[in-house]
Amino acid sequence: MVLPFLTSAPGKVIIFGEHSAVYNEPAVAASVSALRTYMLVTQTDSNAVELDFPDIGFSHAWSRHEFDHILKDERNTTILQEARHNVRELSPELTSLLDSLHSELKKSMFHHAAFCFTYLYICLCPNVKGIKFSVRSTLPIGAGLGSSASVSVNLAMAMAKLGGLITGTKGLTLQDKKLINDWAFIGEKCMMGTPSGIDNAVSTYGNAVLFKREIDGTTNFEFVEDFPQIPMILTYTKIPRSTKTLVANVRELLSNHPNLVRPILVAMGQLATRGAEILNSLDNGNYNELLELVRVNHGLLVALGVSHPGLEIVRALSDTMELGSTKLTGAGGGGCALTILNKDTSEKLVTEFKSKLEKTHDYATYQTDLGGIGCSLLLNDCISEDKLELILKIFNHNEDKALIDELLLPGKCSLSWIF
Ligand SMILES: Nc1ncnc2c1ncn2[C@@H]1O[C@H](COP(=O)(O)OP(=O)(O)OP(=O)(O)O)[C@@H](O)[C@H]1O
Ligand SMILES: C[C@@](O)(CCO)CC(=O)[O-]
Ligand SMILES: [Mg+2]
């Protein structure tokens, strides 16, 4: 294995169907190729595996001996074999065996990331040691833009590479991407419990996808080719929230009021299906229907209790200024809102809208293309000495997004990413 190498995966925007996607309804999501998580995999001279997550202020090293109680005990052979062949559910037995590796993190926000790391490590590359995994994101974390999924995709890709499960040097095959996506779904399960799989799917494959997880756990993808560049604004409220908690709250609401909530989820699914049809053939004749679906989808999410007063500020302002339709995107509860602009919205009005959000509410706004490159790999022989020096600087210091994009952004930078 020639080290160092890098992996990368984009964030995402759910256009229609968040939360209902968890209940086997279809949903539409697009990758946000310009907002990504990067992972640098380097050799160390230790007998450990190290995790460095500076964006959340977490780093940890596990010595190989800490895994030996699992790997060297023959009683665990069947547990490990079964876990390594199950990409639909977490192995409860392996989960409890791993518990001792992060028990002191139980109460911290880092527990999910540590559990995701150790679970994927022991399943994908248990024999490697003296390796450090460093992560940097240009993606707002915990914002509803798929940051957890982008980390899971990076870990799955890096560990599959280290484990010799990905061997290509010219590009990632569909088989590689399926393997990455399957294990990224397991990583998402470690991070947030009951994901639908849409976040890791669109982060793996890029572009845009109509996604549906069937009741039997199989998944259906319909890729929205040539995704239309719809004029939109992403607003990050900076209000922290947890997808795991929000998804759990909806599950409780469904359990308490099945006759009220089930029809809402079904309506969201129908809305997502119609939305995908429009996005596949967007024109002046159906553009306003797209805006109407955005408005209705947000109203249904409010009914599920996953909006937030801070998100309603964005929705109310876009309504008051009549510049388009706004909905929360991702799990909600804060995080991000997506505003799809009317066709005739002037640049002046957009500037006024963004300025009010940024200056009055200290929100951040992004106008970025949707779709684009999914997970990508930068092999060691494509990293020159001088580039490596700059890359190490990015991962060891708090370099700003502009520098990270300039040096690393797949499809824009000079580095030869494969995807
Ligand atoms: N760059 C990162 N470094 C380390 N951990 C990260 C990073 N980005 C995300 N995470 C992990 O993911 C968690 C946030 O996941 P969460 O699902 O709540 O938000 P999200 O994925 O951004 O939103 P959504 O799931 O609604 O799209 C963080 O608490 C952290 O554990
Ligand atoms: C809230 C949710 O629907 C999307 C989170 O980005 C959860 C999921 O589908 O995994
Ligand atoms: Mg997430």
Automatic annotation (TrEMBL):
GO MF entry, a single one: metal ion binding
E.C. designation(s): 2.7.1.36
Locations listed in the record: Cytoplasm
Keywords for this protein: ATP-binding, Cytoplasm, Kinase, Lipid biosynthesis, Lipid metabolism, Magnesium, Metal-binding, Nucleotide-binding, Steroid biosynthesis, Steroid metabolism, Sterol biosynthesis, Sterol metabolism, Transferase
Homology family: Belongs to the GHMP kinase family. Mevalonate kinase subfamily.
Main function: Mevalonate kinase; part of the second module of ergosterol biosynthesis pathway that includes the middle steps of the pathway. The second module is carried out in the vacuole and involves the formation of farnesyl diphosphate, which is also an important intermediate in the biosynthesis of ubiquinone, dolichol, heme and prenylated proteins.
Protein known as: Mevalonate kinase
Biochemical pathway: Isoprenoid biosynthesis; isopentenyl diphosphate biosynthesis via mevalonate pathway; isopentenyl diphosphate from (R)-mevalonate: step 1/3
